[in-house]
Amino acid sequence: MEGYIVEWLNLLLRWFHVIVAIAWIGESFHFVAVDNSLTPPADEDSRRQGVGGEYWCVHGGGFYQFRKFKIAPKALPGALHWSFIPSYSTALSGLTLIAVLYYWGADSYLIDRNVLDIPGWAGVLIGIGFLAGGWLVYDFLCRSPLGRDDRLLGIAVAAYCAVAAFALCHVFSGRGAFLHFGGMLALIMSANVFFVIIPGQKKMVAQQLAGRTPDPAPGLRGKQRSVHNTYFTLPVLFAMLSNHYAFLYGAEWNWLVLLAIAVAGALIRHFFVMRHRGQRQWWAIAVGLALLAGVFAALQPPPPKQIAGVSSAELFARAERVVNARCVQCHAARPSAQFGFPAPPKGIALDTPALLRANAQGVYQQAVVAKAMPLGNLTAITDEERHQLAQWFEAGAPMN
């Protein structure tokens, strides 16, 4: 019953999390596009009102004009939109999802005793420490003298991310490490909104309502953090999707894989940010794609090879025995009640030779490369049995 409840919590939380994340990221991308597409106002009246830039667009059968004031309008409108609810909703739902999936079942999803043999409760505390500590270190860097130079600050933040990726991948399972890296960046993004961007905007609004000229400094700090948020977006999305791809988080040098794809995402985002300004920095796309190609080349599986003295039929028989003993308790049309799954996880059943052959790639990635399955090694698969699965797959996954 517990497994059934967890599956429903997973579904509902993940659904809500994706919805609010789409709203937040979509709004963020839109404002970044608008801000980088502004042109000086065409009419004198707008300039007298303090408008620093405007942006015209057509969408959905209508024409729209966006205007940005250099500091603030002389009189604030009665209805003023604040961009924070999607951010906070994404952060809270994401933290809840981590708690349900990775902290509730820490021994199954978070801890890999082949990486670091620690109890589940210790893993939970370390995970929380990374999530909170990421923001503290990042905020310290931004408030330090480095914060006055965007390039030096960017290098410092990137260096910290590299250290965090290395540490996480040497403490947690690959899956848990990638998720916590993305969670750390996502929490930084939401904390930027909560602690810097929104308070700065509220201060400027209060000064304007009091009849004083708003101090532009809070707006500039908020703009800096907003720019950082847009560069974090694609690495965060990758990290959140990575739990579906064991060949990435299960790689021997998984922390380098994580960093390479995160940098590729940031570079691709940089291209589109600059494109809004009318610049085509193709080098960013080229380097990003080169990094992805490098990861592809480095992780490609070995070519099929024959095992001396062992027939194809025997290789399959060995693999089938391992799967029947260690995997089909969950991955069957009717899973064993012992593990509480009402249906095979992710709809993958392995209880017939044809199904095992059809899912050979996934079995190899999850059981051999990532060693993420069996879940928490509840069925006590041995290294020798993983080796037999590898031999079968690397020989071309034959059935006879």
UniProtKB/TrEMBL annotation:
It holds the Pfam family Urate_ox_N. The keyword Transmembrane applies. Keywords: Membrane, Transmembrane, Transmembrane helix. The chain crosses the membrane at residues 12-34, 84-106, 118-140, 152-173, 179-198, 253-273, 282-299. It comes from the Bacteria. Residues 4-298 form the Urate oxidase N-terminal domain. The keyword Transmembrane helix applies. GO terms for molecular function: electron transfer activity; heme binding. This is Putative membrane protein.
